[in-house]
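User: I'm new to structure prediction. If I give you an amino acid sequence, what do you actually give back? Let's try with this one:
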Amino acid sequence: MADLKPKTVDEFIDISPQESQEVMIKLKKLIEATEPNAESGISWNVPIYKYNGILAGFSLAKKHVSFGIDSLTEEMRKILEEKGYKTGKKTIQIKFNQDIPSEELISLVKEQAKLNEI
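Assistant: Good question. You get back a string of structure tokens that encode the predicted 3D arrangement of the chain. For your 118 residues, that looks like this:
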């Protein structure tokens, strides 16, 4: 995958390892359903969605998909960590065998879209 330069989110997913694709497809659908006006693309070699600025994105690691969003608060990080997700300052790691935390991610995407409108 390192040698390939995907131009769309779908291409990124298609050339990714099979075990990672389900998580990324679910993230793609969640972002697009939550903010239908977001524009998808590839920036910094990873899928990024923009809506009045950067909305959210995700990247592939060896054993997880990392979902990135600026609106991730300390409170939400604690909620996600209690549910078994590893978090960073602005990222949530979703292992290939984990369900995505849909309710929390929808909330974060909506909050980020609102912040981007200011």
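You can read the tokens as a compact description of the fold. Here is one thing that stands out. The chain has one domain: 9-112.
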